[in-house]
């Protein structure tokens, strides 16, 4: 009999799991309290940057990120084909900019271990950097270039994922406002408070991002997932003066094909508040001008914020609960949920098919690790 999977949350993680599970023959229902893609996923910069984002060591999180980057070329084509929608996927590569000679040592040690994991990175001096990014600040003394990093236009990607789900037969129930989980051992039963409807299935995938931390009393375990607000802004730059994703220690700038330059992002604690503050955006503006002086005289035309699902140890909660065969977690992807969406979907589908993806240290992501 076909297994029926209920996916809680219609962000990039829930939709990716739903799409992959449907492709593998499961019956799938997505339950979304608001609008699919309406939270962190639609707010993201869309960078697929495992090397720039993981600078310390090749830990299990880095390995999951890298695996996901490798899945992206085929995955994004599958989403485009199934949805009939195009979205930007740009293999621009990235530059991590340095301002001080002292940064060089850290870059060299980062390069050493990352090149063992196919980064193929390149240390650029000031002249080489200027050739690639002519408008970079004169204070920049060089950069580490990662040719394999890429980015998507996140709102377009998430919209296409939702459409791919709908077209392939995933049932999407959105606008449900509040959802009560009334059974989760030996089958799943969920009630939507707003409509009074009850949904039943065999398995529940908990993929409700920053809100997963509110479910400790439901599952009787520690779920240390917290919302970390990211404030972010965009400039109108129709001439597309920035060619790569450009990082520095204080933020990043990424040029989109639609002629906007997305610059982010703050990391502050504001509960579930998604407003932007003048202070938060002013800090971004100041750093943007230090990276690209032409931005110093401009004001962003768009400012927004989203809630990253952060976890206590920085790793997502990804895997089955030992106390119930009916529940899997896929939450807490913090700064890298867009990047991690295909790998997360593959892991969830593999687990439900009783397969284990080779080479992935899944024990590190055990969702019950904070209660052991
Ligand atoms: C400013 C910013 C920039 C970012 N840039 C990048 C980037 O460049 N690259 C990258 O990889 N990542 C980036 N991220 C991180 C990325 O956006 C997140 O890791 C990712 O979106 C998390 O996806 P999610 O599906 O877990 O969460 P969300 O997108 O937040 O989705 C969770 C969904 O669950 C729903 N929900 C909540 N509770 C319930 C419930 N009880 N029942 C039903 N539904 C519920 C919510 O309404 C929401 O739609 C960025 C994030 C921010 C904020």
UniProtKB/TrEMBL annotation:
<comment type="pathway">
    <text>Cofactor biosynthesis; thiamine diphosphate biosynthesis.</text>
</comment>
<dbReference type="InterPro" id="IPR036188">
    <property type="entry name" value="FAD/NAD-bd_sf"/>
</dbReference>
<dbReference type="Pfam" id="PF01266">
    <property type="entry name" value="DAO"/>
</dbReference>
<protein>
    <recommendedName>
        <fullName>glycine oxidase</fullName>
        <ecNumber>1.4.3.19</ecNumber>
    </recommendedName>
</protein>
<dbReference type="GO" id="GO:0005737">
    <property type="term" value="C:cytoplasm"/>
</dbReference>
<dbReference type="GO" id="GO:0050660">
    <property type="term" value="F:flavin adenine dinucleotide binding"/>
</dbReference>
<keyword id="KW-0784">Thiamine biosynthesis</keyword>
<dbReference type="GO" id="GO:0009228">
    <property type="term" value="P:thiamine biosynthetic process"/>
</dbReference>
<dbReference type="GO" id="GO:0009229">
    <property type="term" value="P:thiamine diphosphate biosynthetic process"/>
</dbReference>
<feature type="domain" description="FAD dependent oxidoreductase">
    <location>
        <begin position="5"/>
        <end position="351"/>
    </location>
</feature>
<dbReference type="GO" id="GO:0043799">
    <property type="term" value="F:glycine oxidase activity"/>
</dbReference>
<keyword id="KW-0560">Oxidoreductase</keyword>
<dbReference type="InterPro" id="IPR012727">
    <property type="entry name" value="Gly_oxidase_ThiO"/>
</dbReference>
<dbReference type="InterPro" id="IPR006076">
    <property type="entry name" value="FAD-dep_OxRdtase"/>
</dbReference>
